[in-house]
């Protein structure tokens, strides 16, 4: 399988970064967005409004015509998790030939409780599906700074071929067949990163931050095991690796959201900020799925309660600190 042409569907910061990444790997890239003005900006300035100051590679062609973008060997679907169904439905409506679709959003569809590959498979059943996730900031990837991620597909040959097509000296995709494990790591860590930001915003100290990240990882492991995810996936790049990154840097939108909440911003105002934090929309779905599988996730539950205005930040912290003492695990 050879993937010489890549469609990147979504021209936000992450989509723009992955377009540059694919071009750097020697692929011809079409970057699609519904916004005609963004297309003109990219064509004229070679820069995305969502990733200012970073030049877009000359091999990246921008378009607002979805069918034109889908005349490719593979597609990266890089839109927010809650918008994935709409774009996947639009892909199906073009009646373009079925090409592999790589989900690049980290989240769970609210209401339906579906992971991104499940949403794509439901909308475009003929398309082979994969997932790309791991510790990566858009600006780092766009600039060509060293980054390692996980690319998973049920078919190992597909995962290997896609990893080879996107990989370069600076961008290293490690392949896997544990699709669910990779998706769980990406979705759960976003919610836990909000909690880490709250700890920082409240000034609770480095010891509390370390404890929060460690106990949050225990929740991620429990949740993953309930879906038969592999331990090596959860402790790898798309699980522990991504959790470490997003729980320790204000570059993370989810951490930044938590930081704002920790400093006293009302949840509805914090979530309505200019940058989308996927964890704010995943939290409720995550805890509902955890409850259905009888998985204990107190930190994730606290984040969801804060976002839903069911608990104040201080009450949520007190509830966590007064839980009964127990064995570690």
Structure description:
With 329 residues, the protein is of the alpha/beta class. It contains 16 helices and ten strands. The protein has helices spanning 13-24, 36-45, 66-69, 84-94, 116-123, 138-143, 156-166, 179-201, 206-226, 231-234, 237-246, 253-262, 267-271, 278-292, 298-307, 313-321, and strands at 5-9, 28-32, 60-63, 74-77, 101-103, 108-109, 114-115, 129-133, 147-153, 171-176. β9, α7 and β10 form a beta-alpha-beta unit. α14 crosses α15 (298-307). The model has no long low-confidence stretch (mean pLDDT 96).
Total DSSP helices? 16
Mean pLDDT: 96
Strand order of the largest sheet: 3-2-1-4-5-8-9-10
Low-confidence stretches: none
Give the overall silhouette: globular
The biggest beta sheet reads: 8 strands, mixed
Distance between the termini: 43 Å
Number of strands: 10
Order of helices and strands: EHEHEHEHEEEHEHEHEHHHHHHHHH
Which structural class is indicated by helix and strand composition? alpha/beta
Radius of gyration from the alpha-carbon trace, in angstroms: 19 Å
Our estimate of the beta-strand percent is 5-15%
Q: Roughly what percent helix?
A: 40-55%
Please give the structural blueprint.
Layout lengths: L4 E5 L3 H12 L3 E5 L3 H10 L14 E4 L2 H4 L4 E4 L6 H11 L6 E3 L4 E2 L4 E2 H8 L5 E5 L4 H6 L3 E7 L2 H11 L4 E6 L2 H23 L4 H21 L4 H4 L2 H10 L6 H10 L4 H5 L6 H15 L5 H10 L5 H9 L8
Parallel strand pairs: 1-2, 1-4, 2-3, 4-5, 5-8, 9-10
Antiparallel strand pairs: 6-7, 8-9
TL;DR of this structure?
The protein is 51% helix and 13% strand.
């Amino acid at each position: 399988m050879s993937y010489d042409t890549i469609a990147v569907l979504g021209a936000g910061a992450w989509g723009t970064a992955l377009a540059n990444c694919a071009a750097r790997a020697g692929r011809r890239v079409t970057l699609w967005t519904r916004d005609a003005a963004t297309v003109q900006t990219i064509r004229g300035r070679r820069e995305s409004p969502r990733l200012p100051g970073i030049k877009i590679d000359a091999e990246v062609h921008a378009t607002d015509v979805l069918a034109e973008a889908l005349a490719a060997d593979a597609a990266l679907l890089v839109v927010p998790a809650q918008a994935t169904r709409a774009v996947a439905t639009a892909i199906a409506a073009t009646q373009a030939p079925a090409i592999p679709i790589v989900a690049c959003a980290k989240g769970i569809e609210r209401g339906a409780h579906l992971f991104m590959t499940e949403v794509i498979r439901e909308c475009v059943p003929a398309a082979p599906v994969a997932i790309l996730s791991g510790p990566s900031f858009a600006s780092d990837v766009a600039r060509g700074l060293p980054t390692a991620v996980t690319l998973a597909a049920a078919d190992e040959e597909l995962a290997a071929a896609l990893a080879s097509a996107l990989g370069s000296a600076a961008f290293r995709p490690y392949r896997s067949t544990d699709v669910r494990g990779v998706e769980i790591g990406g979705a759960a860590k976003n919610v836990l990163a909000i909690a880490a930001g709250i700890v920082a915003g409240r000034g609770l100290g480095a010891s509390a931050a370390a404890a929060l990240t460690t106990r949050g990882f225990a929740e991620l492991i429990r949740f993953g095991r309930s879906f038969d995810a592999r331990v090596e996936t959860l402790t790898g790049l798309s699980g522990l690796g991504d959790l470490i990154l997003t729980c320790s840097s204000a570059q993370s939108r989810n951490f930044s959201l938590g930081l704002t909440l920790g400093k006293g911003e009302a949840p509805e105002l914090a979530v309505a900020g200019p940058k989308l934090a996927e964890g704010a929309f995943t939290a409720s779905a995550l805890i509902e799925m955890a409850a259905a599988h009888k998985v204990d996730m107190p930190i994730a539950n606290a984040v969801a309660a804060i976002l839903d205005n069911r608990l104040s930040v201080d009450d949520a912290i007190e509830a966590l600190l007064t839980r009964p003492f127990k064995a570690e695990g």
